[in-house]
Amino acid sequence: MKVRRILRWFGWGVLGLLLIASAVGFVAYWRSTNDCGRSVPDGAMRMKAIRHCEYGPPDVLKVAEVEKPTPNENELLVKVHAASLNFIDAGLVQGPLLGRLIFGLRKPKFTGFGLDFAGVVEAVGNHVNEFKPGDEVFGGKLGSVAEYVCVRKDHVASKPVNIPFEQAGGAKHAGLTALQGLKTGKIQAGQKVLINGASGGVGTFALQIAKALDTEVTAVVSTRNVEIARKLGADHVIDYTREDFTKGDERYDLIFDNVTNRSMSERRRILKPNGICVLAGIGGAGPDQDQMWRIVRGFGVSLWSRLTDRKFRRYMTTWNQADLKLLSDLMAAGKVTPFVEKTYPMSETAAALHYFGEGHARGKIVIRVTNDSSPPQAMTQ
User: pLDDT tens across 211-230, in order?
Assistant: First the structure.
């Protein structure tokens, strides 16, 4: 009797918690909102920016008129010339369930779009001595597809004079992801490095950075991207539609896996003893159920590999100014050149994201912000 009573109370307790959680979730869902209904104050400076007031397909992206930002004491006001698309941008717009728990259940809390940019400093805060108005910079800021952004001084670096704005605008996130991933793999001169998925935004940077660090690089790409990989400096190119790179005789010190579409045993087979496989990406151009499973499986593989002599490593890209400066130096030296496949005007950002979402983009897809005279578009409330 006592056990039955305990089980009954336990069941009622669980039911009560579920009801409370449901009520909290219901309230949070309907209170989830954003500032899309707020008008620009009279007399305030205005600018155009891309916004998405709802979750959904790329068509929710609209050109809107918003208030021009003002830098605080540690920030720069930058007039944006170019920005670019990244994997995370597609996810923020689509609003997968896990992301909504962070960024807003019913509507996105933050309605800006974009992460990378390049432009010219227009003003600086009182505590900024490293940059001055007129300096050309590149870096990262959420909501970068806008005429102006205010960005922390440690989130930018000087734009090399030999790199146009449209190329520099696609450098920050993909470049840092590639550089920090190779560092996670403890890359060293003279090593043999394989890059699986060497033709995308991150892959084209990883290929060039690995070559700049004096390694022997093998690029794995599709037939249409073989020549691009060669032009970017790959020593060897494998067309995965004709050859299975996991069944060859070559062994590698480092695998930079941008796709993670092969099993642990297949990748272990081509790693040298004490070699490292860096799980840098999950393929595609936005989160879906299969890609979420790849993330979960990747963490499991990483933990299991701690018991073996061939390691699998995951990492998170960080906004590290020292790495951003190194990336700038590599570009200035001509060792790394951002590869841009297509450029769209800001008014066609939705079309750019449509193309990006097809999953076959090569290099970077860039949004040209300056000289876009398109009018603001109607926003859904």
Answer: 999 999 999 999 999 999 99
